[in-house]
Amino acid sequence: MAKNNAPEVKSEQKVQTKYDRKMEARRQQKLKDAQQEKIMKTIGITLSVVVVLAIVISIAVPIIKKESALKGTYVKVGEHELTQLEYDYYYNVAVNNYLSAYASILPYMGLDTSLDYADQQYTDNKTWKDLFDEMTVEQIRQSKALLDDAAKNGFTYDVSADYESFVSELEAAAQAAGVSAAEYYKTNFGTYATKKNVEAFVKEGLTANAYHEDLLAQNAPSDEEIKSYYEENKQSYDKVDYRSFNFNTEIAEDASEEDIQKAMDELKVKADAMVQARKSGGDFEELCLKNASENTKENYENPDTEYSLSEGRNYSNISAVMSEWLYDEGRKAGDITVLEDETYHQYYVVEFVKRYYDEADNANISDTLAGQRVSEYINGLAENYQVTDVKGNLKYLTISTDETTSESESETDAQTETDSDSENNDSENSGTEE
Question: Which residue in 167, 221, 326, 348 is a FRET match for 215, CA 20 to 30 A apart?
Fold first, then answer.
């Protein structure tokens, strides 16, 4: 066998010394440290980005919210797309008008204007915010319907003078309130309101009002229609003059029915005696002075006044105890009677003087008839304006109609309170015997 003459290659393994191992360990540590540093830099950059984004978002949210309020569609009424800015304008006007109209009876209605309206119930299933939203949307529907109808019929109106008056009055009101005009705009028309960005809404409102007045003039009733309406509603427009005096007494809260009846019987005797004295020729005012309590006598001591005489009073402004008797169709001058007020445990002596119609009320009847016709016309227009809750904030739209039958109870109850106050005022004006 032939020999392989190729040289033999021997692999030679280098032996690592202690020094070599130490240097290798250092190299590996440097690589590890470099990798860790790279990771930490990456994390640091990421954290910095997160912080910056958080700051940007905190700044951007109110900016975006404002931008949305100024430009985004908040609600659609008919073909009109309203921003939140415009909706807030109408909302604040509606609320302010409502609060002004019912200022004297708000305490009876259970509304606290210092609290969020959304947290206060108007009815069992509707908050005050819901009520105000509903009122606002209805006002928008009617306003847009009027403006569209005005344009359709070629109605034009120069609002320049009216707008200047509006601005002047607003600035004067702001000064009187001790705030800037800019702040006054926000307080009265919404968070994002400024003089510039609500100007168009104000001018639209002025135009709508002018067109409304034009419609009223077009729908004014004839003299015959006014007379016919009066004949059908005499009680609402006739006025009466009458004299009255009331006899009352202090009755303990824990008084028995027997004690109350005894006190009432005693008052009745005095009231009947006054009537008989009057029928016998006695002067009504002098009889009032004779029967008045010590703290009310001074009301009847001035010979130049007749404290017991009420003049030009309407049916609705007279205590229910007296109104029916006074407005009886058969009533004639000089009729006198005693009327019992069971609620307040008192008796009235009432003498009828006269009932009459003031022809100045023809203008009021004309306004009423024209107003009814125009309201019917506007409501017919507004029915065609469908409401689309784009942002989903009009919760009243989701409340079932069947569940809102008691909606007006708050006003009714409050009005009952004021009617009671009116009866008390009649007592105070009539005089008192104790």
Answer: 167
**Taking Cα atoms as reference points, which of 280, 266, 149 lies closest to residue 218?**
149
Q: What pLDDT digit, counting tens, does each position of 141-170 carry? A: 999 999 999 999 999 999 999 999 999 999
Q: Which amino acid is at 243?
A: R
Look at residues 311, 322, 305 and name the one whose alpha carbon lies nearest to residue 353. Answer: 311
β-bridge pairing 346-356 and 121-123? unpaired
Tokens 């006025």 -> residue? 239
> How far is C-alpha 132 from the geometric centre of its chain's CA atoms?
7
What whole-number distance in Å separates Cα of residue 117 and Cα of residue 91? Answer: 12
Contacts for 193 with CB less than 8 Å, ≥ 6 apart:
85, 88, 89, 92, 185, 186
pLDDT digits 0-9 by tens, 368-426: 999 999 999 999 999 999 999 999 999 999 986 555 445 555 555 555 555 555 455 55
For the chain, the C-alpha Rg in angstroms (whole number) is: 41
Find the largest Cα–Cα distance for the chain: 175
Say if CB 326 and CB 241 are below 8 A apart: no
Residue 341 tokens, joined = 């007020």
Q: What is the pLDDT of residues 28-58, one digit of tens each?
A: 666 556 565 554 555 454 444 444 444 444 4
* Cβ–Cβ under 8 Å, residues 242 and 353: yes
Q: Is the dihedral of CA 187, 190, 194, 198 positive or negative?
A: negative
Measured CA distances, 410 to 104, 283, 406, 425 (Å): 14, 45, 9, 23
Q: In the Cβ-directed half-sphere of 241, how many Cα atoms lie within 13 Å?
A: 11
Q: How many residues belong to the chain?
A: 434
CB-CB contact of 150 with 204 (8 Å): no
The alpha carbon dihedral of 144, 149, 154, 157 has a sign of negative
CB atoms within 10 A of CB 244: 24
Query: Under a CB-based contact definition with an 8 Å cutoff, are residues 137 and 95 in contact?
Result: no
Q: Which two tokens stand for residue 99?
A: 């609060």
Does this model's pTM top 0.85? My answer is no
